[in-house]
Amino acid sequence: MYLFLLSKSCIFLIYLLSLGYFTPFVTAYPSISENLRQFYLYINNGDYNQAAKTIEELSDSSMKLALSADLAYYQGQYDEAIALYEEASQTLDSQKILLNWSKALYQRGRFYENLNVDEGNFDLIQLSETDFSLASSKIAQLLNNNSSDYLEARLLAAKLNKDDLTVDLEAIEKDILSLENSNRKIRFLLDLAEISPKSKIWKQAFSLAIQLDNLQYQSLAQGNLGENYLQKNAPQAALKSAWLAQLAASRIQDWQSLIRWHYLAARSFQQLEDQDSAIAQYKLAVATIKKLRQQLSGNPISPHLYFDVVKPVLNDYLQLLLSLSSPPLEEVISLQQLDQLGQLDNYFQVICQFDLDTPQKLIEKTEARIFFVELDESIHAILQLSDSLRHYPLAIEPELLRSQVREWRVELMNGDFDSSFELSSILYRTILAPLMPILKANDIEHLQLISNGVLRTIPIAALNDGEKYLIEHFALSYSLGLRNRVSPSLQRDFLPLIAGLTRSTPNFPNKLEFAQREARQVQTLLGGTILLNDGFSAESLKTQLQDSRYQILHLATHASFSFVRERAFIETGTQTISLNQFESILKQRRSPLQLLVLSACQTAIGDRYSALGLLGVGLRNNIDVVVGSFWEVGDSNTSQQMKQFYKFWQQGSSLPEALRQVQLGLIREGELPADWAGFIVAFN
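Below the sequence we write its predicted C-alpha cells.
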C-alpha cells in the first residue's frame, strides 16, 4: 500500500507496503498522553522534525525508544528502527512494538530482495531470508494471543507465508468484512487483495472508499483492480480502472500513485497495440516522476520507491523506445539519467538535488561516451561522439552478461589469468567490438563508460581484444553521465590534505604498512599536510578541510562501499566512520574539492548498487573527480601506483591519461590485471 502524507508546503512520501502503518492513536501504546497524540499527528502530516521534538519532550525513556523506532520506520530507516524496537522491547512489554518490529523486518527483507534482483548475491539472499524468518517468529508470538492487532498480525503472517496452503484467507476475509465501515477496514481489504488478488475484494474496497469519501483508497482500489485486469489480458477493463485511479490520485496530488496508474494505462495501450497512446502515457508517468522528485527534494524517501515505482516505468518505456526502427536517442539518454538519479536516491535514501544537463554538449573530438542501457529484456550501447549518437543493440541476454561480469571480476581479483583472459575476450567481443571501428575512425583517445547496471562495475581497462587490453587503446573513465563535460580541467597548483592509516582494524586485519610511505610521496610531489594514524580522526579531517587551500583529499586508508549505504564506511586512525558521517564532513568544508582519492577502497563484488557509493559520493558533494578501486590491491603496489599517477598528472597528463600511463607501465612489467585493472577515474 502506498500513502502520501500532505503538509502545508510539500508532499512527503511514506511507503507502507502490505499492512500500512496508520496507527490509531488510542491503541498505539498502553499509556496515552497529549504528547503521544501530537507525535502521531506530526507523523501523519509528514512533519518529522516536529515529531522528533515531541519525542524529546517525553520523560519516559522506554517510550522515547518506541516512538523513535516508529519515526525511523516511517522514514524508511529500517536498520535504525529494528535496533530501536529491539532495545525498547527490553523494557516495554507492548504488542504494538512487536507488530511494528515485525513490519520493519519484513520491509527490510523486501528491500534486500529488490537489491538482489539480477545480482545473485548470496549475502543479500541470506539477509532477506533472515529478516523474513525473524518477522515470522515475532508474528507467531502475536498470533498466540488475541491482541487488538490480531487481524493485522494475521495479514502480515499471510504475506510472509504466501505459499502456505494452511493459511485460511477466507476466514481472514470474513473477519475483515465483519468490521464496522472505516478507513482501517478498507486498508485491510486492500492488504488482503494483495495476498489474494480477487476482483471482488478490490471492488468492495472501492465501494467503501466512495462511501467514506476517501480518494486515496479509491485510487488504490481501482488502480490495483486495473493491474488485475491487465494480468488477465483484459486491457480495456484495465484502462477504465486506470482512468478512474488517475482521476482520484490527481485530485489529492498523490504523485506516486499517479505514476503507477499512468504506467498501467501505458501497458494497457501496449496490449491494445496502440503505441502512440502508450508513449503518451509513459511521458506523463516520467513527467510525474520528475514532479515527485521536486516535491520530495531534500527529504528522506522510502527505500522501496525506486524498485516498486520508478524502475518499472523507466525500464519498460526504454524498452519500447529502443525497439523502434529509429529510437529517439537523446530521450533515451535523458531517461537513463533519470534512472541513475533514481538509483542514487535509493542508495542514499534521500532525493539528490540535481538538475539534469543536456548530454550532447562539450565533448571534444577525441573523446567519446558509451551509454550502456541495461534493461530487463535487453542491453543497448549508445555511442556519443562530439557530433553524433549511434545505437548498438548488444547480442547477449542480460542475465548471461551479468553472470559473466560477476565471474570475470572474481577471476581477475583472484589472479586466475587463463580463465579471466578468456572471459575478458568474450566480454570485449560482446560489448565493445561492434563500436571499435567507429572509435578508431574518429581517433578517439578518451573513452568514458556510463551504465545504469552491472557494467558500472566492470574493470573495463582489462577487456582484451585477443592482443591488447583496452587501456592500451584509450584513456578510460567512469561517470553517471549527469554532467555535460566528459573531462573537467583540474588545476595542478592546489594543495592536498593527505590522511593515512597503517594499523589494522577490526574490519580489516591486514595492515597498510606502506600507507605512510604513500602519504609522504604524495606530499613530496604536491605539498600539503599529512594526518597519520592517531592524528587522522573525523574531527581532524573536518578541521583541516575548513582550510580553503586544500582542493585535493587523498585517503590512504581502508574504505568499503557496500550494496547498502548503512554498511559503507571509512577507517580513520581513531574510529570507523560511516558514509553518512564522511559526507557530513565533506559538506562542512568552505571550498569545493577538485579531487578525492580513495587509494585502498573496495566495492562489493560485481554489485551495481555498491558502486553508487563510490561514484555518488563525488556527485553529491560537488567533487569533480573521484579516484578509487573496485577491489583492494596490496598497499606496496598501491603506494607505487599513486606516486606514478600524481607524477604523470603533474607532468601535464589528464587524470585518465595519468592512470593509463601507470597501467601501461605495469602491463609492460608483466603484472596481472588484478594489480592494476581495479583502479578507476570517475568524473562527476
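The first helix runs from residue 34 to 44.
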